[in-house]
Design goal:
This protein has 1 helix and 6 strands; from the N terminus they run ββββββα. The longest helix is centred in the C-terminal third of the chain and has 16 residues. Helix content is 17%, strand content 48%.
Length: 94
């Protein structure tokens, strides 16, 4: 089974910030994760990543918040989208 694109979204806000989310259903989990998704989500402002969620091979599920990398518990694609939106909204409100 080849990888299947689940969703892809990219937007540039009026202030020039970039929001991008890409999720793939993959035939085998990306080690060390146990779910069948490969994803990346990023919010960058002024050329700096402010928020990022991804599951890089060897690192597993994690997120980047204000320059700090922390573990992330992947539950579902829907929850990932909600968590990403909430993290971005919190930082844009500052």
């Amino acid at each position: 089974m080849p990888a299947e694109l689940i969703t892809r979204f990219k937007n540039i806000t009026p202030d020039g910030a970039i929001l991008e989310l890409v999720v793939w259903k993959v035939p085998a989990p990306v080690p060390p994760t146990e779910h069948g998704y490969k994803y990346r989500a990023v919010y960058a402002a002024n050329g700096v990543r402010v928020v990022g969620f991804d599951n890089e091979r060897g690192k597993g599920d994690h997120c980047h918040l204000d320059g700090t990398e922390v573990p992330y518990t992947f539950v579902s694609v829907e929850q990932l989208v909600e968590d990403f939106i909430a993290a971005v909204a919190a930082r844009r409100a500052l």
